[in-house]
Design goal:
73% helix, 3-stranded mixed β-sheet, 11 helices, mainly alpha
Length: 300
């Protein structure tokens, strides 16, 4: 019991003792199961709450409008009914799901005094975020394979990348993501939450939530680290190998116009994949002891 109280005191020292959320968390520490969490977010930046709200709101609206427009254009224009744009439309759907899962609640805690989220809503938010996020990581790898076939094997591209194959690749990405989430949830569901309920993030990210478990979390942290390594590094490897082959093929092209056209079809995918892989690896494929929540929030 004394050991648990010592751990709680250590965690409380990292936040302001006068913070009303700390007082609320202390009231909740009575040995009972946690029924709600408090999202700390950017509470330490009191003067920046309104500017942050405006910036995030603008980004959210632009993200929704941009991705919805991409999906609509691809659906309406028959010239865009190709594998590349098929994957792109799914990528846009995933972006809509991810931003809608996290941003509305983030906007709410920026302008509202109530920064709590129910236990069920927190679990659902975390599950949806990582389901869509993991699917997006794998889909970026599938898109690199599509670009490899289009540039390195153009004569057989149409035959290989049929509608059925494209659908199977998307379903496979969703299936692997769902499997990873289910494995994580099965093991985490057995662990108790009975102590402080402050999540040091603006949404229910797995790292800050896992730190609130009142039990030994070494196994669950190792499991989540392994799942992150599997999904991220496998997708990065596929993308890297595909683009090495693409670059070699493009360099060998005799026509400068052909080289420029090939690179132009890949440049946007390379940019998105680099940003997404880079930030995800920075946040999730690192030992928990070396992670800094301020940097993780910024990267997210």
């Amino acid at each position: 019991m004394l050991n648990e109280e010592f751990k709680i005191a250590r965690k409380s020292q990292s936040l302001k003792l006068s913070d009303p959320m700390i007082l609320k968390s202390r009231e909740n520490i009575s040995g009972n199961a946690v029924t709600e969490f408090v999202l700390h977010g950017f509470s330490h930046l009191q003067k920046m709450q309104l500017p942050l709200f405006c910036i995030v709101l603008i980004m959210y609206v632009l993200a929704l409008m941009g991705n919805a427009l991409v999906v609509l254009m691809i659906r309406l224009d028959s010239r865009l009914h190709t594998p590349m744009y098929y994957f792109l439309s799914h990528l846009s759907w995933l972006e809509i799901i991810i931003t809608t899962t996290v941003t509305p609640k983030m906007l709410s805690i920026l302008i509202s005094e109530k920064k709590s989220i129910s236990f069920f809503a927190c679990a659902l938010q975390g599950a949806l975020y990582f389901l869509a996020g993991t699917t997006e990581v794998l889909l970026l790898g599938a898109m690199s394979v599509d670009r490899y076939l289009a540039i390195c094997n153009p004569l057989r591209y149409t035959a290989i990348m049929s509608n059925q194959v494209c659908l199977l690749m998307v379903v496979f990405c969703w299936f692997i993501s769902f499997l990873c989430i289910i494995i994580d949830m099965i093991f985490k569901a057995k662990l108790p939450f009975c102590g402080p309920n402050i999540v040091d993030h603006f949404f229910c990210d797995t790292g800050p939530v896992t730190k609130l478990i009142c039990a030994d979390t070494h196994f669950i942290q190792a499991l989540e680290f392994a799942l992150s390594c599997f999904t991220l590094l496998s997708s990065v490897s596929v993308t890297t190998i595909s683009y090495v082959c693409i670059i070699v093929t493009v360099i060998r092209m005799p026509s400068a116009q052909g080289r420029n056209k090939a690179f132009s079809t890949c440049s946007s995918h390379i940019t998105v994949a680099s940003i997404y892989y880079g930030s995800s690896i920075f946040i999730y494929v690192r030992p928990s002891e070396s992670s800094s929540m301020d940097f993780n929030k910024l990267a997210t």
